[in-house]
Design goal:
Length: about 100
């Protein structure tokens, strides 16, 4: 992944932002998504992997965000889904 940032992300186009926020909050509260900052964040072209927030593929024409977690592991998001997750998780209680 490169450090490039592209605001043309079209990820999660099947959901409105409100629906994406609700779904992301539900995933954080259920433990499917973590409640912690990324240790390192990378931006680059999508590689058809699944977005952890919206469950849709991240196409090559979209920006993929890789979040390396402090406790190990990497989660991937569409750029917009990452932004929503980063805004939502701090309001969902203490870190896991």
């Amino acid at each position: 992944m490169s450090g490039a940032n592209d605001s043309s992300d079209r990820g999660a186009t099947e959901m409105t932002d409100d629906a994406n926020v609700r779904r992301t909050r539900e995933k954080v509260l259920s433990g499917e998504l973590p409640k912690m900052d990324c240790r390192m964040t990378w931006y680059g072209p999508g590689r058809d992997g699944k977005c952890m927030a919206c469950d849709q593929a991240i196409g090559a024409h979209e920006v993929e965000v890789e979040c390396d977690l402090p406790n190990g592991g990497t989660i991937r998001f569409h750029q917009r889904c990452y932004t929503i997750w980063a805004e939502v998780w701090p309001s969902c209680g203490t870190a896991q």
